[in-house]
Amino acid sequence: MSNNNSKYRIQAVAEMTGIPSATLRAWERRYGVPSPMRTDSSYRLYSDTDIDVIRRLRELTESGMAPAEAARVVKKQAEVEAPVDAVADPFESAQETILDAVDRFDPTALEVAVRRMMFLGSAPMVFDRVLAPCMYTIGRRWHAGAISVGQEHMASEILGSAARDMLRLFQHDQDAPMVLLACFADEEHALPIYGVAFRFAQWGYHPVILGARTPPAAIRHAVERLQPAVIGLSLTIPPPAHRARELCEEYAAACGSLPWVVGGRGAGELTEIIEECGGVSFGAESVAMLRARVEGLIAKARRERSHAAEHATGDVQGL
Q: What mean pLDDT is predicted for residues 249-275?
């Protein structure tokens, strides 16, 4: 990956990237990246390309990916980008390739485009910059009659499968606090849940996804068996008001004392109903604000359960 412009010594690269020299040597020895050139005296000299590679590796590992997997992603990305000299934004190029395959109703081309997409960066980055924009565009084209329901279903299946695969590969601690994610009972669009799942995995949670059209009874059973820290429900197209109130009341009963939140494009229209039933409606908060708000809810619920447990113990001792 180096070139004739190699000019930086390892100490300078460590300062520029924030990666210790020992880690740089370990990555090179174990994974073959970066691959600096050597002087006649065997000193490593790094190029601007090497520094870009190191920064990509750091970004991927900080997002939760194992170093070995991150190195494979970086190598594959270099292979994908190699024949394309003038691509200003590889994520936009990936979007265009995917949408073109959908327009042509070509599942083989779509599968190839999706496989290439998965090597462009970390799972959350690929979801935010390729998968989510593509599904939004595909949805708009279907509603406008520009593509058929068959094309929309093909795209949803292939892109949804990619999201599931990326989440399985994404590194997270199985013993971490669990977050339970599902769609409203009448909601068929499950892909947005994966964007939320990647965020929670980055924040140190273990996401468990129940998928589309999840009724309150399924949430109740999952809560009883899994005891998640928080329940997240996705809503793209809101149901009629009477149906929405009925569902929110049933979801509130299913979640019990655990915090539950509703997000998605349809959540804003039901904010009043959701909050009357004890839930929280998420709008267009930034990622940082979203994390702070969710963790505040979790901490509050824990304090309330702890206080209730102490109170119950005191009542028993007083008998």
A: 92
